[in-house]
Amino acid sequence: MKLVSYSLPESPDIARVGFMVSDDEFVGLEQARATRGALALEQLTDIHSIIEAGPAVWAQLSELERNLQGAERRRLDSVSVLPSVQRPSKICCLALNNSANADRIISGPSHPALFTKPSTALLGHGGAIRLKKQYGRVHPEPELALVIGKLARDIAAADAYDHVFGYTVHNDLTSPTMRGEDSFHYRAIHPAAEGEGIRYVDSHVSYSGRYKGSDTFSPLGPWIVTKDEIPDPHALDIECHVRDERFASDNTINLFHKVPQVLEFVSSYMTLLPGDVVSMGTALASGGKPGRAVQNADLSLMGGPVSVTIQRIGRLSNTVEHVD
Description:
The protein has 324 residues and is of the alpha+beta class. The protein has helices spanning 29-36, 47-53, 55-65, 176-181, 209-213, 259-267, 299-302; strands at residues 2-8, 11-20, 25-28, 74-75, 80-81, 91-95, 113-117, 122-123, 128-132, 142-148, 164-171, 183-191, 198-206, 218-226, 237-242, 245-251, 277-282, 306-310, 314-323. It has two domains: 2-81, no CATH class; 91-180 and 206-323, Fumarylacetoacetate hydrolase, domain 2 (Alpha-Beta Complex). Strands 1, 2, 3, 4, 5, 6, 7, 8, 10, 11, 14 and 17 form a twelve-stranded mixed beta sheet that branches. A five-stranded mixed beta sheet has the order 9-19-18-15-16. The chain has a two-stranded antiparallel sheet with strand order 12-13. The model has no long low-confidence stretch (mean pLDDT 94).
């Protein structure tokens, strides 16, 4: 299934869900239920109620999706497309998880490195990325993201896929300008090596709150593709374009830490709840001109649109708006 979240012009504050039947048309769940008399699914209103309902209900939805003949179709451009999920408790992102650029890492952990983003950073397909002058340089980062379907706490890698609902596209927008402004080179205080007292350790640290989590810095969409339609999430082509220029062309096989290991690791530290997002790290292989990278795509100067396309999932595209 391809499940899109949207709102109607007459009720913009109500999140709805529909079945994509082509890249630009969908059938709303309400219309599908009415056509097929699926009264047992009336409790489902938005994507979160679907995810939380569990596998038995997902199977009913899949059966409904296979029998949409005669149901009213609606064009995607006639509604406001919402982020693939709207209320995740957290968006977990992996840092530097691309083996195609392993030679750039001077030192770092052998395990996945994580940071989180707030749900207020989310933006739907077609929405405007809002950039302020003080953000400085802002570039896209094309990423495969998975949506959690079942509570995951201290799970084993072998069981990881049991906790995945589906996959979507994430553009992990980043401001190197704000990263530099929020970085510290300082002497960290540690206990003395022996006995009482303290010692100072030369340290570098940067905090990602602004440069990763500002409003609209997490476009997510255009929809969710359920996991049964993606047999191998590590065999997907991924590209990033700005104003029709290609800045990245990669494949998810280059992700260093794979989904099973990532979910085992993350869930050993923080409980993942249904509807949470785990973004697997940036596709960094160069695209287009030799030596080009997504870091060359400064949206504050180039504007948009900016898009991320992942094979078997879809194309997430957003405009850019400069605001005061």
